[in-house]
Amino acid sequence: MKLHAIETGYFKLDGGAMFGVVPKSIWQKTNPADENNLCTWAMRCLLIEDGDKLILIDTGIGTKMDPKMASHYFLHGDQSLMGSIQQLGFTAADITDVFHTHLHFDHCGGSVNYNADRTGFELTFPNAHYWVNADHYQWATQPNAREKASFLKENINPMAESGQLRFTQAGEASPFPQFEIIYVNGHTDKMMLPVIRYKEKIFVYMADLLPSVGHLPLPYVMGYDTRPLLTLAEKSSFLQEAADKKYILFLEHDAVHECCTVKHTERGVRLDESFLLADVL
């Protein structure tokens, strides 16, 4: 098995929304904001290469967002989903499975593209099965008012209409021997965190449970989370375990730190080391 970090570019989000009740005077020390109070975030995905399987975890924001909506997020950077995949010598047709941690647009937007004449949409990865948790899919297709803007029909409907959509079930074993799944419910219902055992190390793809190393202190919970107190409890439990067992945390949104480990301190669990995925493989 091989693991590859897939960089898809950057976007900007309001720092206050990203850190909830934490004052800017504190969070800007780790995540400095621009003149509009916006911080830069990555949309980093993971590719698992194992035998005849090529499994892509999350797909970033994609390239089909309408100009008005895109203007709110300041998409930038030289790297792209397909560019990063092709740099490894693969094509879209090589991807066998696309695993979505959840269906917010910055995690699944790259799964669907415009068709050739831009009259409709098609799957980016034509030979892949697209995986979503069944309960989360219902949550996303019948959204609450708070999250509705994050679940875009043009990302979700083409998957369902393709016949290539597959579902995981909470409480059942992972459909992939390559990783187990942790379910968390504070950010959104049934978000999935892949846990990958590789060369005597344990890697955890953090999705939005831990967006960045700046979110390590327990009260640093995003304003986007639907159940912030549950996120706090889930994060507390997970970080204790991660520090005890020396998990390597793969950070989807941290623009500076790709992976990190954490340790116990007098102030709680804090950053131990940060590094590139390639440095520990």
Explain what you see:
The radius of gyration is 18 Å and the shape is globular. Strand 12 and strand 13 form a beta hairpin. The chain has a 6-stranded mixed beta sheet. A 6-stranded mixed beta sheet has the order 11-12-13-14-15-16. The chain has helices at residues 15-19, 24-27, 67-71, 81-87, 105-108, 134-141, 153-162, 228-245; strands at 2-6, 10-14, 38-42, 45-50, 53-57, 97-99, 112-114, 121-123, 129-133, 165-168, 180-184, 191-198, 201-205, 248-250, 259-265, 268-275. The chain has 281 residues and is of the alpha/beta class.
What is the count of helical runs?
8
Q: Helix and strand succession?
A: EEHHEEEHHEHEEEHHEEEEHEEE
What overall form do the CA principal axes indicate?
globular
> Helical content, roughly?
10-25%
Strand content: 25-35%
Rg estimate, integer Å: 18 Å
> Strand count, sense and closure of the main sheet?
6 strands, mixed
Ends distance: 10 Å
Number of strand segments: 16
Structural class: alpha/beta
Mean pLDDT across all amino acids: 97
List unreliable stretches of 5+ residues. Answer: none
User: Widest sheet: strand order?
Assistant: 1-4-5-6-9-10
Which SSEs are present, and which pair or pack?
Elements: E1 2-6, E2 10-14, H1 15-19, H2 24-27, E3 38-42, E4 45-50, E5 53-57, H3 67-71, H4 81-87, E6 97-99, H5 105-108, E7 112-114, E8 121-123, E9 129-133, H6 134-141, H7 153-162, E10 165-168, E11 180-184, E12 191-198, E13 201-205, H8 228-245, E14 248-250, E15 259-265, E16 268-275
Parallel strand pairs: 5-6, 6-9, 9-10, 13-14
Antiparallel strand pairs: 1-4, 2-3, 4-5, 7-8, 11-12, 12-13, 14-15, 15-16
